[in-house]
UniProtKB/TrEMBL annotation:
Location(s), subcellular: Cell membrane; Cell projection, Axon; Cell projection, Dendrite; Cell surface
GO CC annotation terms, alphabetical: axon; cell surface; cytoplasmic vesicle membrane; dendrite; early endosome; endoplasmic reticulum; late endosome; lysosome
Peptidase A1 domain: residues covered: 74-415
Active site: D92, D288
InterPro entries hit by this protein: Aspartic_peptidase_A1, Aspartic_peptidase_AS, BACE, BACE1, Memapsin-like, PEPTIDASE_A1, Peptidase_aspartic_dom_sf
Organism: Pygocentrus nattereri (Red-bellied piranha)
Stated name of the protein: Beta-secretase 1
SUPFAM superfamilies: Acid proteases
Family assignment from sequence similarity: Belongs to the peptidase A1 family.
Recorded name of the encoding gene: BACE1
Physiological role: Responsible for the proteolytic processing of the amyloid precursor protein (APP). Cleaves at the N-terminus of the A-beta peptide sequence, between residues 671 and 672 of APP, leads to the generation and extracellular release of beta-cleaved soluble APP, and a corresponding cell-associated C-terminal fragment which is later released by gamma-secretase. Cleaves CHL1.
EC number: 3.4.23.46
Keyword S-adenosyl-L-methionine tagged: no
Higher taxonomy: Eukaryota, Metazoa, Chordata, Craniata, Vertebrata
Amino acid sequence: METAAHALLLFCWTVLAVLAASVPGCGAGGLRVALLHPARRPSQQGAPRRRRAARSVTFVDMIDNLRGKSGQGYYVEMAVGTPPQKLNILVDTGSSNFAVGAAAHPFLRRYYHRSLSTSYRDLGRSVYVPYTQGRWEGELGTDLVSVPHGPNVSLRANIAAITQSDRFFINGSNWEGILGLAYAEIARPDETLEPFFDSLVRQTNVPNLFSLQLCGAGFTQNYSLGSATVGGSMIIGGIDPSLYVGEVWYTPIRREWYYEVIIVRIEVNGQDLNMDCKEYNYDKSIVDSGTTNLRLPRKVFQAAVKAIEAASSTEQFPSGFWLGEQLVCWQAGTTPWHIFPVISLYLMSENRNQSFRISILPQQYLRPVEDVASAQEDCYKFAVSQSSTGTVMGAVIMEGFYVVFDRERKRIGFAVSTCHVHDEFRTASVEGPFHGVELEDCGYNIPQTDESTLMTIAYIMAGICALFMLPLCLMVCQWRFARCLHPLGTGNFADDISLLK
């Protein structure tokens, strides 16, 4: 459709330019039409391959290698350059660029000094990444990278050196860059830029999977590290059985761009929302560690909030609470968890006519906001929000589960995490199988218009455009011809009519 529109505009302006040019101008003031051409994409230099043998992976070295602040993301320490510069890097399964702060910023304690690395190579390309809120831009290069509390390997990876940013870095978050772990299709500036994990698998013997255990702010092990500190583990290249209980249930990765999955049913306290399952995946459903909340499409969000509000109606909450605009607080230790319902998401299993259910506790979707709470109060923010870009299973969902990103077999696994927050009455769970029919049809497909139909529409519009432009062009030519024959004197009235603005 975009190509047809460009062709239409080009045709109309060409007609105007040709007709206007057919009348001799009276000096330098003749009508000028500039045709704009798309900028050429800079050439990319291919990063040289470096392959280093990996020793047998010891997952115990990776346990508890994540840190963070509640609501501000989880980060892992990485070493960049020669000699190594250690930086804290946000772990993000919802993007595909490895980018680090490379200039002084008020919110950064340290940043990447490219000039101090003897192994840095400039690619001569720039990159710009906008978000719903915030943006960053920088310069692309490659350098040697390793993960100190990860596999004992070093690789040459693409790095975006962030030179300018707006509302990207977070004050007090303690991370200085972002590690995009998704696929090349959503890498910036284009899909030819190889993401970090692809480079890791290609250059080393690390298997093509990783797993995440995110432990929320309510997990008692982290209290000694500071009231708002959270932790967890990123196991690079495998699965650690000590980090989960029960069975791992897998759902297929529907498309390799984001980690897209298919949700087939949503329940609140066991009651089905009774919506067309396509609504749950409009326009996609993804697993994203870089997003805090469970984000739902507008219709699904409204139905879910209505059900949660009804289930917890023994207490009254301000409307702003359900919109994430107001906090609710209780006296310390008296939070009435029992009045809030369990939210269950059913995901299509590897057997396409079966699903499994992950059950999410209120201890997950009510996020503690500890920097505003006093010693006498526990305060919470509702961590389910409305989305215009599909369902996002963010950190508050992942904090209940051990999540396996099995890229080799194109699937994502869920098991109950050993560090999820629960009470004596309820616990997060992963259960199945549940039978269904043609569950793959729940996935959302962008409507496709036949190309021949688009071309027909484009030609019709071009014809209509020509019919309207021709009289206008004739009027312009007639006016220009008249001005050449009868030039205006300096004492006459000014011509304040503008045909083209």
